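User: Please predict the structure of the protein below. I'd like the answer in structure-token form so I can feed it into my own downstream comparison script.

Assistant: Understood. Taking the following sequence of 294 residues as input:
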Amino acid sequence: MAKSVSKKNIKTAENQGLRVVSTPKTKPYNDIDLNNWKLYSHIKTGSLWEFQSRDKSNGHSYDYHGNYIPQIATQLFERFTKKNDIIVDLFFGSGTSAIEALNMERKCIGVELKQEMVNYVSEKFSKKELVTDVNIICGDSTSDETKAKVQARLEIMGKEQGKDKAQFVVLHPPYDDIIKFSEKPEDLSNCATTEEFYNLFEKVAKNAYDLLEKGRFAALIIGDEYKNSRVIPLGFECMKRMENVGFVTKAIVVKNITGNEKAKGKTANLWRYRALAGGFNIFEHEYIMTFQKV
């Protein structure tokens, strides 16, 4: 669960000789009190994020290959959302975004292509949570039909706050065809070419842009791939596709993946041999890119 500036935090700060201002100063997109910015040392503002292991507490588990680590959600949600905001995840997977959204008193709408995955992830939440705080839609995130379903749900979930758009969007697509997630032709991991992958991703990015409230942020979590004896810079091409639909790039963060890739971790010597023999370097990073709808 994300740290917050509680009375205990404030008391600790005062004991350390830090001046605590009682009148809060916040941005429209988060609850961070800028008058007491020194209390937020747990929030990463640098461009290199390193995590030694995956957080498996507070409802999180590594039960689905390819899901992003919860610490990323914690950082992004505290930095770019407020309490009761609605987060949309267009590549929902095993539900990391929704679990952390609930931990941090946010709401979440997720889109997942596979019905069996929707059924499985739904069991992680109570019936009440699935009515009030989490909604999982089985659909294709590239389609107008799915966008309409998300929009309809946003209008219901945001009614009390008088809002009908998302306050944050998460995009964690397949890294082209590195891992096959289903046999469905609309699955981005089944694209015949990398160019087709980019084109379909751009459709998802456009839906994300349309569903997001103006002035708010989106995050793209993605790595690159090595194919046909060359590096394919998926991250930077997808960044361009985000800009194509109207987003403004705000930050590019490099995050370590050492220890998070089970396959490479178990066969490290083999991958090292292949790197030496093939003239390439082993990927030990992925990107977390943030964008704003201005």
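That's the full token string. The chain has a mean pLDDT of 90.
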